[in-house]
Amino acid sequence: MKVRLSVAARDDYRKIATYLDEHCPAVTDRILDTLKFNLDRLQDHPMAGNKVGRYRKIQVVGTPYVMYYLLTTSELLVVRIFHEKQKR
């Protein structure tokens, strides 16, 4: 299944990368690689996330981030990527 990031999710990803580079550069690559790995994993396991309303939510293991996504018949759309303590 094709995985696509919404404009908001791409912006979230950039903000995460910028924040990590500025505040904890030692973990930036590991966390970004883990986010990418989980995006790739969703291609093969689109039902991995828990149902939350009309979205699915998956904890990015080993990080404090969660991804919200929508499933359609043709694609998986990552809507947002949040820090678990971030207000939504």
Overview features:
alpha+beta; five-stranded mixed sheet; 2 helices; 32% strand; globular
Summarize the structure in short.
The protein is α+β, with helices and mostly antiparallel strands and 88 residues long.
Describe the model.
- The protein is of the alpha+beta class and 88 residues long.
- The protein is 42% helix and 32% strand.
- The chain has two helices and five strands; from the N terminus they run E-H-H-E-E-E-E.
- The protein has a five-stranded mixed β-sheet with strand order 1-5-4-3-2.
- Strand 2 (50-52) and strand 3 (55-59) form a beta hairpin.
- Helix 1 packs antiparallel against helix 2 (25-44).
- The longest helix is centred in the middle third of the chain and has 20 residues, at 25-44.
- The radius of gyration is 13 Å and the shape is globular.
- The model has no long low-confidence stretch (mean pLDDT 94).
Strand content: 25-35%
Q: Give the number of DSSP strands.
A: 5
- The best one-word shape is globular
Helix content: 40-55%
Structural class: alpha+beta
Poorly predicted tracts of residues:
none
The secondary-structure element order is EHHEEEE
What is the terminal separation in angstroms?
A: 27 Å
Strand order of the largest sheet: 1-5-4-3-2
